[in-house]
UniProtKB/TrEMBL annotation:
Domain of life (superkingdom): Bacteria
GO annotation, cellular component aspect: cytoplasm
Gene Ontology terms describing biological process: purine nucleobase catabolic process
CDD domains, per the entry: DHOase_IIb
Any one GO molecular function term: dihydroorotase activity
Keyword line: Hydrolase, Metal-binding
Function comment: Catalyzes the reversible cyclization of carbamoyl aspartate to dihydroorotate.
Matching Pfam families: Amidohydro_1 (PF01979)
UniProt family annotation: Belongs to the metallo-dependent hydrolases superfamily. DHOase family. Class I DHOase subfamily.
Protein name: Dihydroorotase
Chain ranges of the Amidohydrolase-related domain: 53-420
Coiled coil: none
EC number, as in UniProt: 3.5.2.3
Length: 443
């Protein structure tokens, strides 16, 4: 007697830990319970003929601006953009207003997000000099992605820039700590390099050494504290070469925009819309990131989705805010790189699914395997299309990639067996729930 499933994905190319295969996937109770052919009947069947079924893609760095900055974005609108782009889970950053730096504020975000966010989610706790000794308890709250340190001032008021305070933060807790590594002292000394009205001077002000000094400092402090770290949005090849020598203690992230944009073209075309921290650098930097990515050094891809309104970005540099949206374009941009031969699909899956699972200790996510959450990003690798404003869902309503012709697109986003998005149409209801971590489930 054949089994009955809640959902079957049929006739697709399924990407399991063993590789790609033509198979069906059976889902029951939100989890994967069968992989094979002739599985039986289901309450819902999705025909994936001609499509590739990937493990659900995870964006481990987004800024959704709620609470306090909802005119830029909120948890609903940001997560809607995420699932329209094929993202099944996000880790949201703490530089909101107020900052997410107490247990009360973490629980407030979790309450706001439950079944209001379209995708699954976790929230970082922001480190400060004042809460350093409390971080060992805060990082254990279910639904937290860990602790985030801003070594260089970015959007918001979280900043931990001196070695004594950094050492106190690293001494409090055991989970991997996420780092924004730019050296505040050097950037303050170089403010004169930020030329009024010239956003192309942004990477001159926040130069390579600002990043490298901070990366070396934090790795040294982490080694002294015997604390694992995760360095976000790496922009220089030299940093990746250095991190490659310190993989026992440091993992790292690269972003689609740093792999796609080159300053020589981006600043004349986009102006302040290309402004972010750390900066978009030269084409040589971009090519260097690809070299080290193909050497296996970066562990994950994160969008650093950081929306600002058109009115805010229209301010003259350097009064314009740094940051750009990206959660909706992460998957298609990288699929386009796959189509153009810069990236293998296997490496893409590693950077967006199994990599986040390994780095952050996720429970039940990151692969298509029995017992795992039924999270799938269903893609058409051959679909040719143009990023249009009518597709963008972020409240800021712009993208540096608008008008770009791409090959590859997410056709469907399935989260714990729920078809949340299919062919750009959303489900009736949001189903987002907190992501589970080994460090909080089994503390």
């Amino acid at each position: 007697m054949s089994e009955t499933f809640d959902l079957i994905l049929k006739n697709g190319t399924i990407h399991t830990p063993g590789g790609a295969e033509q198979a069906d996937v059976g889902v029951r109770g939100g989890r994967i319970v069968a992989i094979g052919t002739g599985l039986g009947d289901a309450g819902e069947t999705i025909d994936c003929t001609g499509l590739d079924v990937l493990p659900g893609c995870i964006d481990s760095q987004v800024h959704f601006r709620e609470p306090g900055l909802e005119h830029k974005e909120d948890l609903e609108s940001g997560s809607r953009a995420a699932v329209l782009g094929g993202i099944t889970a996000v880790f949201e950053m703490p530089n909101t207003n107020p900052n997410t730096d107490t247990a009360e504020r973490v629980h407030d975000k979790l309450k706001r997000a439950h079944h209001r966010m379209w995708c699954d989610h976790a929230f970082y706790v922001g480190a400060t000099a004042d809460n350093a000794e409390h971080l060992r308890d805060l990082e254990r709250i279910p639904g937290t992605a860990g602790v985030k340190i801003f070594m260089g001032a970015s959007t918001g008021s979280l900043l931990v820039d001196d070695d004594n305070a950094l050492a106190r933060v690293l001494a409090s807790g055991t989970r991997r700590v996420a780092i924004h590594a730019e050296d505040e002292t050097r950037m303050n000394a170089r403010k004169g390099h930020a030329l009024a009205g010239d956003p192309s001077s942004h990477p001159v002000w926040r130069d390579d050494e600002s990043a490298m000094i901070a990366t070396k400092r934090i790795i040294g402090l982490a080694r002294a504290a015997r604390r694992r770290i995760h360095i976000l949005h790496i922009t220089t090849p030299a940093e990746l070469a250095y991190i490659g020598q310190n993989k026992d203690i440091a993992t790292c992230e690269v972003t689609p925009q740093h792999l796609t944009l080159a300053g020589e073209e981006a600043y004349p075309r986009l102006g302040t819309y290309a402004q972010m921290n750390p900066p978009i650098r030269s084409g040589a930097h971009r090519d260097g990131l690809w070299h080290w990515l193909n050497q296996g050094v970066p562990d994950v891809l994160g969008s650093d989705h950081a929306p600002h309104t058109i009115e805010e970005k229209a301010k003259p540099y350097p009064t314009s805010p740094s940051g750009m949206p990206g959660v909706q374009t992460l998957v298609p941009l990288l699929l386009n790189h796959v189509a153009e031969g810069r990236l293998t699909l296997r490496r893409f899956i590693e950077l967006t699914s199994s990599g986040p699972q390994r780095v952050f200790g996720l429970v039940g996510k990151g692969r298509i395997a029995l017992g795992y959450d039924a999270d799938f990003t269903v893609v058409d690798l051959k679909k040719r299309w143009t990023v249009g404003s009518d597709w963008l869902a972020s409240r800021c309503n712009w993208s540096p990639f608008e008008g770009m012709e791409l090959t590859g697109k997410a056709i469907g986003t399935i989260i714990r067996g729920h078809r949340v998005m299919w062919e750009d149409a959303l489900a009736n209801d949001a189903v987002g729930e907190a992501v589970r971590f080994e460090a909080t489930e089994f503390a």
